[in-house]
Amino acid sequence: MGGAGKTAIVRKVYNHHRTKNFFESFAWVCVSQECQIRSILEDVLKQLKKSPHQNSSNLTDTELLGQLRDIQRAKKCMVVIDDIWKTEHWDGLNHALNFEGTKTKILLTTRKQNIANIGFAIKTDLLNDNDGWELLKRKALPHRNIQDFRFEETLLEKIGKEMYKEDEDIDAIDICLMWIAQGMILHENHSDKDNLMDIAQDYLSELASRSVVEIIRDDPIRGQRTRSCKLHKVMRQLCLSVAKEKEDFGLRNLVYEGGTFSSFWHNSLTCAKMRHSIVNLKKSNRLSLEGLEQLETLIGFNSFVHQLESPAQMTNLRHFEGTVHDNQSLSNIIHAFCTSWKDCRCGGLKIKQGCHISSEEDLMIFKKLFNLHNLYIFVRIEKLFKELENQVYTSNLMCLFLSESEIIEDPMETLGKLPLLLDLLITDRCFLGEKITCYASLFPRLKNLGINDLPNLREWKVEKGAMPLVSKMGIHHCPRLEMVPDGFKFLDALTDLHLCGMPELGERISEEGGEDFHKVRHVRSIVVRD
Question: Residue 304: what pLDDT?
């Protein structure tokens, strides 16, 4: 986003006395959208050689590159490339400014995320409310200490603080679905193989790269796609003002009272302006989803109330989130994921009471669950968990929630081998034993860990090298846990630790004489609650 302060910050660094003392020669060039590679390189050479009147236009390209190489090898140089827009522009400049054996440092400013990813990126965030108001006062009210300006400052304070207020987080999938429903997302200029959701995500990524929206959380399950974003208040007001010019957004409220849902749905589509629909279900029987084979997104499926007769025919499905309560529905969905739903990149599935994993046939279904990305299990597993040992190495699981599983043996060795696991929550009598161990090299990518409501857990051992990336951890209501593991002192990435319902353990990590404080002194935020 233009005006976010990128150039101002870089200029501060560029003009700082420590920078001037460290480097011997400097160059600052502005690229913008119209980039003339040759002209920019001539300008860089002129500034590095401190020869403002030098004419380099008569040099051949080889001679120009040679002089740039020589000056950079002779001196420590700093080059700022301001407001670069395209990667091909960087490619054209890079070969002339990034010679081996030189000590040149190159600083880029850009509005495009793909260019920022070229090197070590520093994001310029928007100002918070207080800092934004202080900046506005300095710029708008330079005479604010004079009595006559007091009233003006009070009036502008209300306006200014409102300007800098940011809106709430927005679920990215909701935005994409609304764009598609509004007919804004088309296959034009895209391959027919690209589904509409992927095209919408590309548009959202482009807006983020231009800082029109701010990415709050990426979704690694969808290949670094966006999970949630934020729209600045000023931009939101602009969007609302444009939206007021639209009289009809195509919203229709429908009532389904029975019959074949596909016929009801297709009849509803005869309304030319309908793009969003709210369907009120007046029928208590299970709703058949037959006839929706072209569906790309299915969220909120529940086998209690929905019936999928032939999920394997839904070959266009790209996003699925649902809950199953019986083994037949579970088997059908897992079979679809392993066959026709292979391009469905977000497999969020909750397995609840009604499903059971007790026989060899059940175990075969359970093993295939590791092909999913998000998995929430609320059923007993007991001794069968150890049977999954060979399944973990090829697992796609990134998020795993285990509850009421009543696992007998330590599950950490098996779980720790899941190669892509990012989030793990073990809760509500998931484990009935007394001791768990996180061996070295286990949980190589884990970032968030929760251990809750394990009434028998007494000892937890963490070896050096385990969980190297874990940054957030919560331990709640494990009353018999005697102490914080010694290995916590090796968790260098841990920034947030939350303890709840364990007052004695809380005392052990107290900064004032706690026996275990030395194990967590590096943790930035520690919260202890009764």
Answer: 83
6-116, CATH topology level: Rossmann fold (3.40.50)
> What are the structure tokens assigned to 80, written together?
């700022």
pTM of the model: 0.59
Contact of 222 with 214, CB cutoff 8 Å = no
Which residue, among 521, 484, 524, 522, has the nearest Cα to 502 in the 3D structure?
484
Identify the weakest region by mean pLDDT among 18-32, 77-91, 184-198, 503-517.
184-198
- CA dist 495 and 525 (Å) reads 6
Q: Tens digits of per-residue pLDDT, 99-116?
A: 777 888 888 888 777 777
Q: How far apart are CA 405 and CA 414, in angstroms?
A: 15
Q: Which two tokens stand for residue 373?
A: 């990305």
Dihedral class, residue 521 (left if φ above 0, else alpha if ψ from -120 to 50, else beta): alpha
Backbone phi and psi for residue 273, each to the nearest 5 degrees, phi listed first: -90, -5
Tell me the pLDDT tens digit for each residue of 334-391. 888 888 887 776 668 899 988 887 777 777 777 788 778 888 999 887 776 777 777 7
Count CA atoms within 13 Å of residue 508 on its CB side. Answer: 13
- Tell me if 72 sits within 8 A of 48, measured CB to CB: yes
Q: Is 122 exposed, middle or buried (CB count within 10 Å of its CB: 0-12, 13-18, 19+)?
A: exposed
Cα distance between residue 57 and residue 5, in whole Å: 34
Per-residue pLDDT at 137: 66
Start-end ranges of CATH 3.40.50.300 in the chain? 6-116
3-state helix, strand, coil in the chain (%, to 5): 35, 25, 40
- The type of residue at 167 is D
Q: How much is the CA Rg of the chain, to the nearest whole Å?
A: 29
